[in-house]
């Protein structure tokens, strides 16, 4: 139970621990499996977020910087 409490505490603080590899019986094994599923899911979310942020940076790099006066130009063209 102490392992589970420590893992939940770590996950709640944003620290993703390694999967639990020790063998347990009964409900403790179910708890271990559920924590490992949670660890895998959070790890996948982190990996997706990293991939998406890299893709966003890459897309901005390809597009290039926006002109500094984009809003001013748009506002002027709306008045015309």
Describe the structure.
There is one protein chain. By secondary structure, the chain is mainly α. It has one domain. The chain has helices spanning 2-12, 27-63, 70-79. Helix 1 runs parallel beside helix 2. The longest helix has 37 residues, at 27-63. The chain is elongated and about 60 Å long. The termini are far apart. Mean pLDDT is 81; it is low at 72-80.
Distance from first to last alpha carbon = 71 Å
The helix/strand series, from N terminus to C terminus, equals HHH
Low-confidence stretches: 72-80
**DSSP strand count:** 0
How much beta, percentage-wise? Answer: under 5%
Report helical residue fraction: over 70%
The outline comes out as elongated
**Count of structural domains:** 1
Indicate the structural class: mainly alpha
Reported for the largest beta sheet, the result is: none
What is the gyration radius calculated from CA atoms? 23 Å
| Residue-averaged pLDDT | 81
Contiguous helical run count? 3
